[in-house]
Write a structure and sequence with these properties.
Order of helices and strands: EHEHHHEEH
Mean pLDDT: 96
Number of domains: 2
CATH class of the largest domain: Alpha Beta
Strand content: 5-15%
Structural class: alpha+beta
Strand order of the largest sheet: 2-1-3-4
Helix content: 25-40%
Distance between the termini: 10 Å
Largest sheet: 4 strands, mixed
């Protein structure tokens, strides 16, 4: 099984999701997306794998979202993906991708990752 987790170690849900993965015996690729900047194409790819619009990947409670003055139309996935790439703290976390199947989940709650581990 080949899993990739887009991880923020400061987030308790992200840490718990990673713990569940590792406890199942899987060693995922860990992408520290705040340090390893994702580009708009990466964001669009994640949204596609999740079968969600980019707007559904936003953490709307984050200051970067609440205080945004240049936020594009929420229905414009390419423009919104570029904005998320420039403001990565607003990206929902963690996102886990099974690279073999292309299936992905958002680890909120962390137990969602069991869908990929079965």
């Amino acid at each position: 099984m080949n899993l990739t987790i887009y991880h923020n170690p400061r987030c308790s849900k992200s840490r718990k999701t990673l713990e569940i993965i590792e406890d199942s015996g899987v060693s995922p690729q860990v992408v520290l997306y705040l340090a390893e900047k994702l580009d708009a194409a990466d964001i669009l790819d994640l949204a596609s794998r999740l079968q969600l619009p980019v707007a559904d990947l936003l953490r709307r409670g984050e200051a970067a979202f609440r205080e945004a003055v240049n936020l594009p139309d929420l229905s414009d996935d390419p423009a919104l993906a570029a904005w998320v790439a420039a403001n990565p703290t607003v990206l929902q976390r963690p996102i886990v991708v099974d690279t073999a199947t292309g299936k992905a989940i958002v680890g909120r709650p962390p137990e969602n990752v069991h869908e990929l581990l079965t």
